[in-house]
Amino acid sequence: MRTLFIFLLLANNLFPQGHFYRQYWADFDENISNHKDGRWRVNDPQLALHETFGKRPEALANGLVLLNVPESLFDLESAELYLEMWGGHPHTTQKRVTVNGKGVYSIPDFGTSEGHCVYTYPTVTIEPSHLVNGINALQFSCERGDGFWGHFIMDNVAVRCYFNTDSLIKRHPDLTGFHAAVHAPEVIKNEHLQLSLDIAEEFEAVIESVEFFAHYSGFDDNGNGHDADWHGYTFKRQWRHHVGSAETAPFKVRWNTDMIPDQSKPLQFKALVKLTNGFYYETKATTGSLLQRKKESVILNYCYDAPVPFWSRAGNVKIGKINLSVEPKNIVKAELQIKIWDGGEGEVENPFTINGHAYPITSKRAIHDVVHTIIDVDPAHLSYGDNEMKLVSDTHHHGIEILRPGPCLVIRTK
């Protein structure tokens, strides 16, 4: 009886600082999607009979995703949908998904309906009862809004299943007592920070990898409109632009913060621990490190005057402006951060320039995918006051979209 009492006590307090989930990605099938380019396309209801666009192969795409979730719904505490999603043609509205015909869920907009070019990674909370054990039918749809063609694309689709504690320990008693947390120093010194995973040695063997994340105010890399956020996103299902990864014990990473903007609050940290049994464990956020600088400062500078959409094709020149309140002679280091949807520059040799100076931001291969560029900028190419960000593509197909939040100059100054 005493042993049972201790076991139940552990169950009630097993994971007070984190939670477990499993993640299931959808596999693209052109026979189901009715389209062959390897990504799920969604069109507005009127497109099929559009005089011009209705005859294009994209119009055949039906927005249907079939995704296998081999879990008992009785074991789940919650569930969510996760997308790697190109926001679509400007002014596309009312993105939504119907789950197994049981419930309709809105997909966050992030600016497409207002005419912006976006690529985002939304999560949508789903009622576990709307899922089924096995193949789930996810029907995506949208409306045209004020645009010429309501359309968006999902490169990857996943369902995350979060487990309740009782079900988890019944199925995996070996995880009883599992706990992990991120260890961070109180102060970041010399612009470098070492993070490590605090975990009992007995559990190290069941860890496949660890991803580390930081919450701070910086470049809005996931396009959700928030600078102060958890930074990082997935590209082809792999984490990018986060603090870093570790695949062997003692699971440590070293992070260079020299171009992280000045912070008014301590940075927070968390880790996503991938286990060998297919589970993920997300740690509780750890309030950790103060970013202290005495002689220099790092600031973000976005476009204050940018076209909507910031999209060039067929030779249409688009120009945005970034205002700098720093004299170039006082700039220690300058960095351009920019994300684009790369539909190609055509025959244009220098598709993006800063005050007339060329900076490479495309793949040079028109990959029709996201390209995230972080590149040093010569301070001599910058000016006090307005700086011109010029974009041009002469391809007649898609061209180049500068995605929200637009070009950003990160300036480290004396």
Summed up:
The protein is 5% helix and 45% strand. With 414 residues, the chain is mainly β.
Can you walk me through this structure?
- Strands 1, 2, 4, 7, 8, 10, 14, 15, 18, 20, 21 and 22 form a 12-stranded antiparallel sheet that branches. Strands 24, 25, 26, 27, 28, 29, 30, 31, 32 and 33 form a 10-stranded antiparallel sheet that branches.
- The chain is mainly beta and 414 residues long.
- Mean pLDDT is 94; it is low at 1-16.
- The radius of gyration is 24 Å and the shape is flat.
- It is built from 3 helices and 33 strands.
- It is 5% helix and 45% strand.
- It folds into 3 domains: 7-163, Jelly Rolls (Sandwich); 178-291, Immunoglobulins (Immunoglobulin-like, Sandwich); 297-413, Jelly Rolls (Sandwich), CATH 2.60.120.1200.
- Strand 20 and strand 21 form a beta hairpin.
Q: At the third CATH level, what is the topology name of the largest domain?
A: Jelly Rolls
Largest sheet: number of strands, sense, barrel closure? 12 strands, antiparallel
Task: Look at the structure and give the mean pLDDT.
Answer: 94
What overall geometry do the principal axes of the alpha carbons give? flat
CATH level 1 class label of the largest domain = Mainly Beta
Question: How much helical structure, as a percent, in the residues?
Answer: under 10%
Given as residue ranges, the uncertain stretches (5+ residues, pLDDT < 50) are: 1-16
Report the total helices.
3
